[in-house]
Design goal:
Elements (H helix, E strand, L loop, with lengths): L6 E7 L5 H14 L4 E6 L9 E3 L5 E3 L1 E3 L3 H6 L5 E4 L8 H11 L3 E7 L11 H7 L2 E4 L2 E2 L6 E2 L1 E4 L15 E4 L1 H5 L2
Parallel strand pairs: 1-7, 1-8, 2-5, 2-6, 6-7
Antiparallel strand pairs: 3-4, 9-10, 11-12
The structure holds adenosine-5'-diphosphate and magnesium ion.
Length: 181
């Protein structure tokens, strides 16, 4: 029987809701508590930096960019707390990997978009939220009316599910503004 208890924590919500900020807050506290911490992000997300996870308000932490979720297993051997940002971009293997790591007694803190730009569940997120002990769903501020925003609206014409961008391509919307014709 293992003596350490592992856990999976999911931080989700639309763009600009503070997911990365919250991930950084939890990870930095873990570092203060002298835990061995590693932070990963998918190769696809190089909007700000290849070497750091950076929030929209410019908070950051050193991170490792990976191509395939399997690399996390290899790189986490001596690590007790693992952070993963933009987890919605990973393949389905990431769920098994999070479970395996948590079952080894590690704390896994992940953040990602729960919905895509059409308001549909994003990739692996529903399954991961189901596996997690703790799910924190954050809201942004609706760029149209100032209400709580749970949706990410694409303000460009592309129909691809993955289209990297910032305030030039996306805005946060409340339900009413998101579905308004
Ligand atoms: P996420 O990872 O969810 O995209 P970040 O943690 O990177 O979000 O950034 C959150 C920050 O984004 C907020 O603290 C705020 O400074 C900024 N921000 C920009 N637009 C908005 C918005 N529409 N609603 C809330 N915060 C916003
Ligand atoms: Mg983020």
């Amino acid at each position: 029987m293992q003596n350490k208890k592992g856990v999976i924590e999911v931080i989700c919500g639309p763009m600009f809701s503070g997911k990365t900020e919250e991930l950084l807050r939890r990870l930095k506290r873990s570092i203060i508590a002298k835990n061995k911490v590693a932070v990963f992000k998918p190769k696809i997300d190089n909007r700000y930096s290849d070497e750091f996870v950076v929030s929209h308000n410019n908070n950051s932490i050193k991170s490792i960019t990976i191509n395939h979720s399997k690399e996390i297993l290899e790189l986490s051997k001596d690590i007790s707390i693992i952070g993963i940002d933009e987890i919605q971009f990973f393949d389905t293997d990431i769920i098994k990997i999070c479970i395996e790591l948590a079952n080894k007694g590690k704390r896994i803190i992940v953040s990602g978009l729960d919905k895509d730009f059409q308001g549909r569940p994003f990739g692996i997120m529903p399954n991961l939220m189901c596996e997690a002990e703790l799910v924190t769903k954050l809201t942004a501020i609706c760029n149209q009316c100032g209400d709580y925003a749970a949706f990410t609206k694409r303000i460009s014409d592309s129909k691809d599910q993955v289209l990297l961008g910032e305030t030039d391509i996306y805005e946060a919307n409340c339900r009413g503004c998101f579905y308004k014709k």
